[in-house]
Amino acid sequence: MADELQDILQAHFSALEVAADNFCLNWPDDDGERQLLEGFRQTIRLAGAGHLLHLEAEPANPLLIKMQSLLRQMMLPSVDAVYHHARLHGDYSYRLHGNRGTAHVFQVAIYQGSSARYPDFQLTYDLDSIDSELLAAGEDIDFILSAGPRSDLGDRWIPIPAADSEIHIRQYYYDWDTEQPGSLMIEREGCTYPTATTAPADFRDRIDRLNSWIVNQSNLARQYVQSFLDADSAHLPAISIPGAFEGTRYLNGHYRCGPDEAVILEAPVPDALYWGFQLSNLSWEALDYYQRQTSLNGHQALVDEDGVFRAVISHQDPGIANWLDAGGRTLGLISGRYFKAHTVEDPRLKRVPLAELSAHLPAATARVTPRQRSDQLRQRLWSAHRRQCSDQ
User: Fold this and answer.
1) N or C: which end of the chain has fewer CB within 10 A?
2) pLDDT at site 245
């Protein structure tokens, strides 16, 4: 037994070492120790997420697990979204039911394979509230998920692969203050209680999935973050990411901002159902969005008279309404998301001295007082807490 334990521990430590190398080492040295420590934190966060999504996951008795929380985030979550996940298997059929809530966009996606094991992981089914009246805001939903067709259910049947699969549910919020989270449950049809205990072989498989998750996801993060850094520092090019939020164009890049500088983001407002921008670090974590204004979406942003969204990235609050707080990082990542966009123009980035900021902005640029900013951030914390700190 002692030898088996050592083997289990060694395999887990080896996976953690791969992730730590990916997140902590061989990055630009702009932020030095900060990057090292944030990378270590992300290694632990990634393992914690893998524990919930794979070590604890049971396809015979699934639970909808919240993938991200205020303090458990990985793989650059959208700060506007709440993500739920469950492992499924085609040997079973499932019922997904409850109230859909009133999030601006609600999406159900089914993936073949396991997010712990690439490249055997691909989207097979996508249903969003834009295309389906069955996902109308505020209404109850009731779907059956199975590998075999259920012609009696019509559009209420969701097909899943015959073997391993995962369900991912995304709720994208535009108005953080009024849109309400869904209250959802997934359960296996015909399940009797108490459920069977986990067999040792299945437990070993789950441990292997956890370790594979840590290695594969950190490798992916390293790859994508490098692509942010390789982008032209004056533009945010639009790309598509296979398997990500279907229908979304991603605009990814980086910025450098010293303590006495500002970076101006200029983006022609897209003709899109949803759009937003957010800052992150090199560990692919959204900056502290719940207590700092490090993101703005199309509902929150103030757009100038010429139809251009202008935001100011800086370490000090310049009193500009569309401020994005750099959070003490000299080198950061910036990501845009345009959902169902009919127009996509590359946003531009311009680095200027903070003392000369006003000369680079329209005279009518909206401003806020320190008291207004404090009130906004307090409301921001309440809104994020309401969505992320419960599993309603």
Assistant:
1) N
2) 73
